[in-house]
Write the structure tokens for this entry.
Amino acid sequence: MVLMVESCEGVRNGIEVSNSTDRDRREVVTVSLTSKEAGKFAGKAVTIKDAAGKQVDYQVTQDRALIFVADVKARSKATYRIVGEKPEEMKTLATGKVYANRLDDIAWENDKIAFRAYGPALQARGEKAYGYDIWVKNTEEPVVDARYAKHLDPATNNTIDSLRRTGNPEDRRAANRLRDETSYHNDHGDGLDCYSVGPTLGGGASALMLGDSILYPYCYQTYEILENGPLRFRVRLTYEPKHIGEMRVTEVRTITLDAESRLNHTVVEYKGVKEGTEVVAGPVVHHSDGGEYFADVEKCVVGYEDPTDRRNGESGKIYVGAVFVQKLSDARLVLFGEAEAKERGAFGHVLGMREMFEGESLDYYWGAAWSEAGMDSIGEWRKYLEEYAANLKEPMKAKMVSISNEQ
């Protein structure tokens, strides 16, 4: 989340975090550091401990900020002590990378959920996958790297290809079994990829809109990973310039995923927009009648219960949605016509909409949760998103303080 930051000059031996809301909060907080303080934290010369004396893992970001997960009761404060000792190994809860061996996918995850965006190698091959993909998981451990390694293992795939080429039915069945045992499209105990993207906005990508037509972004052109764990992953994606009337528009997305959150904070710049142009964002709809969804223009949230690509229900449900920081002009279900639904392999989107002007950015959060990992209904998902939106308006405050040795 974007959190209010307070910093104090000089050496401090504690951090005070205050929660002014009526809700218990557990989320990443941010404190600005002096150069001296940043050096100590970045050099792992100090440890943060909670009131029980337990180590609290942290990360120093590129912009010289300290981030850590704070756990604070409603209408309360929590104090964390900074001690001069080397911390124990910190657990990676947010991480990602580019998988050049899988058509330039960028995939990232935290302790709740995983995502990916498609790259130039996939676009060059002609595949149409415009939006964000979602990989569900039911463990806080990183899973994406292992899933790719298993699915893409050259020896395994050579064996599968060899078995399929023999023409022997038994060999073909053996090849299919081996593919099932290694595919990230199957659940091997920690989740799977069971979400369909195709030529849509997928899990909540943004796009400019002219009239009734969404100008779908294709795959990213270049990338820069700005932060990579243990508590925050951040990447900047730049897209190929697009001519829209007399405008030459370049789209730049900065995506941030923190530990403990099911949502990515995303700021989208449309460089070159010269006049009021509508921008939309939201998840694709895979129910022919819209299914279970919500779109609230006042609360700035949209959400949807996705059936996954296994319509028999064996993979549960994926709850997808977005929270918008800025005021929306509209939020609603937009269904495709019959021909477009057939072309895109889907039936529409649930969209938040606003007008974009030169120099402005779209600021929003998008993400997902899985019914097999702690999200039981679309009503619970709506509550999560609405509370997330409320928390953004009342961020927890963190500041460096001096505390006595007796505390």
Observations:
- The radius of gyration is 23 Å.
- Confidence is low (pLDDT under 50) at residues 1-10.
- The chain has two domains: 14-86+396-401, 96-143+190-376.
